[in-house]
């Protein structure tokens, strides 16, 4: 099995707080992995470390065989790691279509003609599946919250990543849209054979879509396995499931 991404002894502190505490983990190419844990558990810190938005105090990050520790986010993006954010990062003065085009241009950096064609297909599919077709010529700044979120995710997907990182893809998306958004993202990710890391508070969604679940607590991974295994682990039940988390999906 090919390892798409791995970390070794990854540590990052914020003063006395350990955001990441010695994280060693390997992710198989093409798998879909959910990150769970209460607020402040270190999920976003971990994603920031693997995408270059934070530099580790020690430890390393490998993309395939390549050591990407300390590289800038844009260089990591060019190597095929795409991410969406808890708060959407859009080009507000550009239209929906133009935002997607920018994301594609970044991806096209190292792609062949057939990949370019594939990108166009994925873009059309993303527009359609995310329900953004009617808004394609609208400026991003005029979009309502849910649509901003969808566009941010669509931008990560159209760059044809080998690793797709989604921080709370369904926060701010209405309850009715939620399942559809996750289903769409995961389907597109699987179609691209992208290894996907997503932070999700809804345990039903986690159980339905993730091949593997990592539970975070105080910067450490306290459980790692299938959804059934992890959601049943005593420490997860004690520290995560049944806490405020899940009640409003935003603990
Ligand atoms: N840039 C930062 N500066 C200071 N503290 C931070 C920063 N980023 C995260 N932290 C702290 O690190 C811990 C983990 O945060 P985070 O990774 O955002 O958790 P999660 O995404 O699981 O809610 C928290 O205690 C948080 O306050
Ligand atoms: Mg977070």
Task: Kindly state the number of beta strands.
Answer: 10
Count structural domains.
Answer: 1
The major sheet is characterized as: 6 strands, mixed
Q: What is the CATH class name?
A: Alpha Beta
Fraction of residues in helix:
25-40%
Q: What is the H level of CATH, i.e. the homologous superfamily?
A: P-loop containing nucleotide triphosphate hydrolases
Give the H and E element order.
Answer: EEEHEEHEHHHEHEHEEHH
How would you characterize this protein structure?
With 251 residues, this protein is α/β, with parallel strands linked by helices. It has one domain: Rossmann fold, CATH 3.40.50.300. 38% of the residues lie in helices and 25% in strands. It is built from 9 helices and 10 strands. Strands 6-7-8-3-9-10 form a 6-stranded mixed sheet, sandwiched between helices. Strands 2-1-4-5 form a 4-stranded antiparallel sheet, covered by helices on one side. The radius of gyration is 17 Å and the shape is globular. The N and C termini lie far apart (35 Å). 44% of the residues are buried.
List the helices and strands and how they pair.
Layout (H helix, E strand, L loop, with lengths): L2 E12 L2 E12 L3 E5 L6 H9 L6 E6 L2 E2 L5 H6 L2 E4 L11 H13 L4 H17 L15 H14 L4 E4 L8 H18 L2 E5 L3 H7 L2 E6 L2 E6 L1 H6 L1 H6 L12
The structure holds adenosine-5'-diphosphate and magnesium ion (MG).
Characteristic key phrases:
binds magnesium ion, disordered C terminus, 4-stranded antiparallel β-sheet, alpha/beta, 6-stranded mixed β-sheet, 251 residues, 9 helices, Rossmann fold
Short characterization:
This protein has one domain: Rossmann fold, CATH 3.40.50. The protein has helices at 43-51, 73-78, 96-108, 113-129, 145-158, 175-192, 203-209, 227-232, 234-239, and strands spanning 3-14, 17-28, 32-36, 58-63, 66-67, 81-84, 163-166, 195-199, 212-217, 220-225. It contains 9 helices and 10 strands.
